[in-house]
Structure formats: structure tokens, C-alpha cells
Amino acid sequence: MPFTATSLSPIDRISTTREITDLLAQGAAVAIGISGGKDSQAAATATFQYLDKIGHRGPRLLIHADLGSVEWADSLPTCERLSAQLGTEFIIVRRKQGGLMDRWESRWRSNVARYENLSTVTLVPCWSTPAMRFCTSELKTSKIHAELKRRFTRLPIISVTGVRRAESTQRARAEIMDHKPGEQIWTWRPILDWSEAEVFASLHAWGIEPHPAYRQFGLSRVSCRFCIMSSLPDLVAAAGQPETHDLYRQMVGLESRSTFAFQGARWLGDIAPHLLRPDMQARLAAAKDKAARRRAAERRLSKQMLYVKGWPTRMLSDGEADLLAEVRAEISTMLGLRAGFLDRASIHTRYAELLEIRANRRTAE
Questions:
Q1: Is the pLDDT at 191 greater than 50, yes or no?
Q2: Within this chain, do residues 51 and 126 fall inside the same structural domain, yes or no?
Q3: Which domain range does residue 87 map to?
Q4: Concatenated DSSP letters for 227-251?
Q5: pTM greater than the 0.90 cutoff
Q6: How confident is the model at residue 264 (pLDDT cuts 50, 70, 90)?
Q7: Which of 69, 97, 108, 96 is nearest to 253 (CA)?
Q8: Is the Cβ–Cβ distance between 125 and 155 less than 8 Å?
């Protein structure tokens, strides 16, 4: 059962579980993921203090997933300073194909190619979303876990994160520990029940200066320069920093080309339009109009025609094929795509091909 190590002072109290303490007693490797934000700083310092207190003898280190151009200039130096203060090894991992901005761009290119080839029914957002946070799963968690498994082949690994329940309703449901049976890595959230005041008090007690984005830039949270989870005030504050302006224009450019707003219904281009040249403002306005027309066209498709897991599950009727052809032609012309399969016959041929591929795959399984 979970318990809290109440023998520590209030600002350094650690949430743990019996399984975690048993692993630590066995000398498990401990890796604290740090982003440069206050919560990961607090999690790192509190975890190190706790490990010292219980006499942990296993390896420990800090690890940072660098997301490239979307990162604040101060994030990596903040992590490096923390590593020096704790006197521990610091590892940086990166996606070989590029950072998060590259991932968003390549996702849009892949999206277009799939649509043009009728490998999907509708276009999908190029951006990460709260429900589909591949920015975290692909560029952070998977890269960190892969490096830890490479380094510690014979030890259980405890991956520490600075997640706190007070951050959001979703994180309020988080558990102190996660572990999939048979996996080598346990995820531990030692400051899960801390308040924001406790986090800052802990950093002050350690003599650690928080990321300047909090007090100098006016942000409530530090992650990417422009984050899918950012509040409106944080987006405005971020856009007010000169270091973000090139990235801002690049992201608005992708909004304009894709016709997908950065935060669902909130266009990043509306946050600081004064940073955009007149031609960029015109393209953004056109993209908003196209987005509304794209959504209207896609709403003409019945629910039974839309993409689901295992799609396509059946052949379309002649009427459905005609409708899909009309919608595809409209969207392709609107966005300047080179979509194929724009008539009933070619759509039926493509669906027959896809259904055969699906049947062969199921047979092979």
C-alpha cells in the first residue's frame, strides 16, 4: 500500500510505495527526468535527499529529453546547474530525426500523403493534443526509457518524474507508482501530493534558482516555449520573449498550411499577430476560412464512413463513394493537395485493395 515518508520535513516529504522502497533497498538504478521546470527540480533534490537518508547504494543520475527548437534557451543550462549542484551524472537524449517542431512538420507531411493516397478518410491535426501527447510519449518517455535500458541491463530501473496532482484534473488521478508486468522500468512520482508553495520552498531551501521563465517571463509553468497545455496568459507571456519569435512564426506558418489551430479552437497566430508580416496575416486569415469549410465538408460524411481501427471494415455503397469523392475533391482543391481517388470507380478499387490487405494481414496473424 502507498505511504508517505512523514519522517522528512514538510517541504521534503516523499510519497512512495512498498514496492519502490524494496527496489531501492536492492540497489535499483534511479533516474530523475528533468526539464528545467520547478517540479522536476524539486523532485530531483527531494529524491536525492531521500536516497541519502535511506542509504541507497545503487546508481543515480539526471536525464533530460531535448526537444530542440521548442525548448527555452535557459532550460538546458538550468538542468546542467542542477546536475552540478547535486554532483551527479547528467544525460541528454534526443530524437534522431529532429525535435518536436520537426515532428509536427513531418506529421503534417505524412498526413497529407495518407490523405492523397486514401489511406485515411479525413485530415487530422499535425499538433500534439491533450488526448494524444506524442510530444511526451515519443520524444521524452520512449527516448529516456531506451537509454536507461541500454545503460542498466541487469538492474531494475526507477524513472522519477515531478508530476503533481495539483497540476490538473488529469494528473489528480495519477498514482505514486506505475509498472507494467515484465517491464524493467518502474515510474515513480515522489512529489505527487506537494503544493506549488512546497515546490518553491524546497528549491529555496536548497539554494536553487528556478527557471527564469517563472519570475522574469511571467509563466505559470515551464515546458515548451509554446505548449499544447499552455494557458492563454502563458502563451501571451511566451510570445513576449524575443527568443520565441522565430519559432512563433514557424508554428503559425504550419497552422496556415495545415488549417489546424495549435490548440484546437485557439489559433497561435491570434496570440501575437503583430509579430507576423502582412502576408502571413493574410495566409492565416485564409487558413481560418479554409478550416471552417474543411470541417463543413467533412461533416457531410456519415459516421459509418469515418476512420476507425481496422479501417476499412466494408465496401462503400455507390452513394457513399460519390459523396467521399466530392468531399475529397473539395478539400484537395481548397488546400492545394494532389489527392487521387476522386471518383466512384477509383474509390471502390482503392477500398477493394485496402480490404484485401486487411484480410491478408488478419490471415497472417
A1: yes
A2: yes
A3: 3-215
A4: -TT--HHHHHHHHTSGGGHHHHHHH
A5: yes
A6: very high
A7: 108
A8: no
